[in-house]
Structures are given as C-alpha cells and as structure tokens.
Design brief:
The chain has helices at about 5-10, 30-55, 80-85, 105-115, 130-140, 160-165, 185-190, 210-215, 215-225, 245-250, 270-280, 300-310, 330-335, 355-360, 380-385, 410-425, 450-469, and strands spanning about 70-75, 95-100, 120-125, 150, 175-180, 200-205, 235-240, 260-265, 285-290, 315-320, 345, 350, 365-370, 375, 395-400, 425-430. The protein has about 475 residues and is α/β, with parallel strands linked by helices. β10, α13 and β11 form a beta-alpha-beta unit. α5 runs parallel beside α6 (about 160-165) and α9 packs parallel to α10 (about 245-250). The termini are far apart.
C-alpha cells in the first residue's frame, strides 16, 4: 500500500483538493497549499489505518453492523469484505479503492443493489480483463443517471463496456478523470458522446498517440463529444499529441466557457490556431500549457504571448517548457496585462532584473517560479522585494536555474531570504544551473549550456529581423 499512496508514488496532480473547481468564481489557492493538503490527507489515512490495526478506531477499515450511516469508504479493501459490508451500508455514497478488484466476484452488483445513494467511484488501479466487465456491471445496475463522479488515478484496462455503461448516467455524470489511457480505452471514448453533463474532464494518454493521424475516427468523435459538453468548466488533456487540433474547435464554441484548461505533451510549432483560440476563452482562471518549444519560431512565441495577454482574469499560469525561448519582453508583456496573477511559472533565457518593475505590480502574486536561465542580481531581487505589498503575503519565490556567471554568494542568498521573510513572511529558493548529469557548474566549467544559448540567440536574431521588416 505504501508503494501506491500518492504521498510516496506521485499518483496524479489532479488529486481532489479544496482548490478543485466548484464554480466559475473559485479562487486560486496555490500549488504549495494543494501539496500540503494532499500530504495531510494521506497522513491522516495512514494514522487511521494504524489505529484500526490495534483496535483503537472503528472506521474506515473495519466496518461492522454499528456503522449503517457511513457514506464514504476508502482504503485497501478486498472484494470478500466489500461483499459483506455493502448490505450493511445503505447510506453509502462514495468508494475510493486502491484496487478496483474489490468490485470483482459479485461485489459490484451487491453495491448497486444495496447502496441506492451511490454516486462516486475512485479507483487507484485496475488491470486485467475483468476490469472492463465488472465496472460496466456496476454502472448498469446502479439507478439510471445517478453516478456523478468516476476516476481512475493510475492505470486500468477499461474499454468499450465501461464507456457504454457510463452512458447509463449521461445526465448525471459531471466529473470524469481517466489517467494512463491505453489505445483500446482511447478508442472507446467516442461512446461517451451522450454524456454531455460533464463539468470537469481529465484525460491522460499513456503513450502519446497522434490520434488525428492514426485514429482519425476516434479523433473526430472526441471533438464532436467535447463540443457538445456545454457545461464544461475544467478540461485537461495530458500527453495528447493532437490535443491542440482536438481542442481548437471546442475553445471557439461560443457557449463553452472554461475556468480551467491544461494541455501538455504537444508541440509549440504550427499550433498558432490553437493558441489564438485559447485567448478567446476569457473566462479562464487557471491555464497550464506544456509543449516542446525547441523548434518554435518567433511568430509562434509572439502569437502565444499576444493570445495569453487577453486572459485578464487568469490567476494561475503555468508555461513550463513552452516558454523556453521567452525574453524579458515576453514576461513583462504578460505581467502588464495579467494583473490578477496569483501563480506564475515560466522559463525563458537570459531573464534579467529588467522584469522586476512589472512583476512587482502583481499585487495578488503568491507563487513565482523561474525555470529560466536567469541573470538576477542581489540589488534587483532586493528592489523587487521592497515593492511587495500585503497581497503578496506568504509569497513563494523560486529561481531554479541561475546563470553561473550570476550566482549569488551564500551571504547574498541569506540576505534575500531574510528580506523577503521580513517583508511579506515569504520564502525564496535560489539555485544555480544544474546540467542533465546532475552537476552544478561554476562559470569556469560551464560548457553544457552552449546548445541552449546558441538556440536562444538564433531565435532572438530571427525575431529581431522579423521586427525590422
């Protein structure tokens, strides 16, 4: 069990937290707060397990006839135990299972028959051919249009039977999270087209298939389904190579207003239409774009920044990787337009103190992370800190890849940490560049960055030439 708990094995970054989207006005709480919540949740879970093992607590691991009002059940449960317990739990609404096999051997039908209020199912993992059949049995035996939430956290072998059975809950299913989908599972997603009540959708492609090129019928069916989900508020596609092509028509739908969007595992190059469409979703409060930007052009970056600058309500912006060739100007353009930013994660190259004046105007900023090749100085950082206000209380500042020529001494780092702690009770993480081989380089020994520098200089020269025209 230790090996599958998200605290020790990652799980999914979409764990249900207080920050989960409740409505279009939900606030951005901060990535650190989410992590702390998850740790607390699983620490309490382990505590409960230990106490139950020595007879100090009754729930949630040892269910008896004394617990008829129990509404939620989670843990490492065997199908034999669930078969015994379910008839005693008429109020049961939610199951969170470490292994989906707990629903095998007839347990699924017993839950359906004895738990009329059942509406939420979360499974960490379920591999094997029985997974698809047993899940379908549960969903079909439940009262029609009663299931509201279904989630696979890790891996599974769900397929067409499960997807077809979910249609039995087309009017009620509002939250669907499916991780590590295999090709057979992806092919079955088109069956979900009648499920248009979806408000939160999280899909992860295990191997990153190019569905548009290799499974075009599946691709088209997914586009049609998503376009029909008018209540959709949170949409995340992980490792979908054709994600931009799939989402562009969805984002252009006049009656779809997203609050949260996450798209990772695609290429920045030639996806201008997608990035322009992102800018049309002005209701967005949270956005993550993670793409391979190694072959981008100046026009790609310009379109991206121009589009993002329209999202004036955004509070959480994560531009990992996609921003590898950002300049000072790109970052300041975003800061000037996105004044409600609370979390900002960006990369870039040769990012200097020139950005601080505009970054300091972000009065709600709570988390600022640079994976960029930065050239910050002590004076520049102290000037930024001096301009922080009460809205920045508790700010987390992370500079994760400083140019070795601009490394700060231990004394300078201590000065900055003390200053930010005194100003807004915040903390700063300052580290120098670390190569892929794990070596932290001083300027005299730095040679692994030449390729990165050459690439960035090429892009800057090309951009300047384009502007001259």
């Amino acid at each position: 069990m230790h090996n599958v708990a998200p605290v020790t094995d990652g799980g999914s970054d979409e764990l249900e937290t207080p920050r989960a989207m409740k409505n279009a006005d939900y606030p951005s709480k901060g990535r650190l707060q989410e992590q702390e919540y998850i740790v607390r949740k699983w620490a309490l879970l382990w505590r409960s397990m230990i106490l139950s093992s020595i007879g100090k607590t009754l729930l949630p691991y040892f269910i008896t006839q004394e617990a008829p009002l129990l509404e939620e059940l989670d843990g490492h449960i065997l199908s034999s135990a669930l078969t015994r317990w379910a008839p005693r739990l008429p109020k049961l609404r939610s199951l969170e299972l470490w292994r989906g096999a707990a629903l095998a051997d007839g347990a699924a039908s017993i839950v359906a028959n004895h738990c009329p209020n059942f509406e939420k199912l979360s499974i960490y993992e379920w591999l094997g051919k029985e997974a698809d059949e047993c899940l379908a049995e549960l969903f079909l035996r439940l009262k029609a249009h009663s299931l509201q939430y279904f989630r696979i956290i890790s891996s599974s072998d769900i397929g067409p039977q499960t997807c077809q059975a979910l249609v039995h809950h087309a009017q009620s299913l509002c939250e669907l999270r499916l991780s590590n989908l295999k090709l057979e599972s992806l092919r079955a997603l088109g069956m979900l087209k009648p499920c248009t009540a979806i408000k939160l959708l999280y899909l992860e492609d295990l191997l990153g298939f190019d569905l548009e090129a290799t499974q075009n019928d599946v691709f088209l069916s997914l586009v049609a389904w998503l376009r029909s989900c008018k209540d959709l508020r949170s949409l995340t596609l992980i490792n979908f190579m054709s994600g931009p092509a799939m989402l562009t028509p969805v984002l252009l739908e006049n009656d779809i207003h997203l609050v949260k969007l996450g798209v990772t595992g695609y290429r920045l190059l030639h996806n201008e239409a997608f990035h322009r469409a992102v800018g049309d979703q002005k209701s967005l409060r949270s956005l993550q774009l993670k793409a391979d930007g190694e072959t981008d052009t100046p026009q790609d970056i310009d379109v991206l920044v121009e589009s993002l600058s329209k999202l004036t309500e955004i509070g959480d912006l994560d531009l990992s990787d996609i921003s590898d060739t950002f300049t000072n100007q790109n970052i300041t353009d975003l800061a000037r337009n996105l004044t409600k930013l609370e979390e900002f994660w960006t990369s870039g190259y040769a990012i200097s103190d020139a950005i601080w004046e505009d970054i300091a105007q972000l009065r709600y900023l709570q988390s600022l992370t640079f994976t960029a090749w930065t050239r910050f100085t002590t004076d520049g950082l102290l000037s930024f800190i001096s301009q922080l206000g009460s809205g920045n209380e508790g700010l987390s500042l992370s500079v994760l890849s400083a140019d070795p020529d601009y490394n700060l001494t231990e004394e300078e780092q201590a000065l900055i940490r003390n200053a930010i702690a005194a100003k807004v009770d915040a903390k700063a993480i300052l580290t120098r560049y670390v190569s892929q081989d794990g070596v932290s380089y001083d300027s005299d020994h730095l040679n692994t960055s030449k390729l990165v520098k050459d690439q960035w200089l090429y892009h800057r020269a090309a951009r300047e030439q384009q502007q001259d025209r």
